[in-house]
Amino acid sequence: MNINHIKFFVKAYEEGSFSAAARAGRMSVQNVSKTMFDLEEEIGCLLFDRTTQGVVPTEAGRAFYVRAQLAVRAFDLCERFSIEGGGQGICHRRIISLP
């Protein structure tokens, strides 16, 4: 499962449209739509009902959203730890030199 797919799912869920998710991720609507299709295939159920007004989460989509939010938050915390050098002082680096 790809964290970027999950992030697009969360954005589409919160905004109610693939267009908004596409704008936020600087992607085409077609690409977001394909990403959601791939995610639904991987999970094995529809996450959204598509309408002319946007997308409406299915029951499975609402259940997945709760978990997806947690995954995105956890990923963002791990990413921030890495970017901010959060391991300084507790990480040991291995330095190898050749003669």
Automatic annotation (TrEMBL):
Highest taxon, organism lineage: Bacteria
Pfam families named among the record's database cross-references: HTH_1
Listed GO MF terms: DNA binding; DNA-binding transcription factor activity
InterPro entries assigned: LysR_HTH_N, WH-like_DNA-bd_sf, WH_DNA-bd_sf
Matching SUPFAM superfamilies: Winged helix' DNA-binding domain
UniProt keywords, alphabetically: DNA-binding, Transcription, Transcription regulation
Domain HTH lysR-type: 1-58
Cellular component aspect of the GO annotation: protein-DNA complex
Entry's family note: Belongs to the LysR transcriptional regulatory family.
Protein name per its UniProtKB record: HTH lysR-type domain-containing protein
Organism encoding this protein: Paraeggerthella hongkongensis
